[in-house]
Amino acid sequence: MRLGGDFLFAATRGFLAACKIPMLLMPGDDLVHPKVTSDEMVRLAPHTKVVAPWKGDQYKDMAMRRATEFFVAHAPRN
After folding, report:
1. Domain containing residue 36
2. pLDDT recorded at residue 2
């Protein structure tokens, strides 16, 4: 995998499309993390759960709860 590509820094579109690992995405909306990139990630990666909105004090508790639920649900089982 080539780092620093034209899409994501450390993942290609092909990698996301083939990835079977559940992912949690808190979409960006700024210059470094543009919404269009987040939207494409969701379209490509079949196992992506989106937490949005998440920025700001009014969303903090909800975002933390949803992230915790995601990680508990997808924790490796022995």
Report:
1. 13-73
2. 47
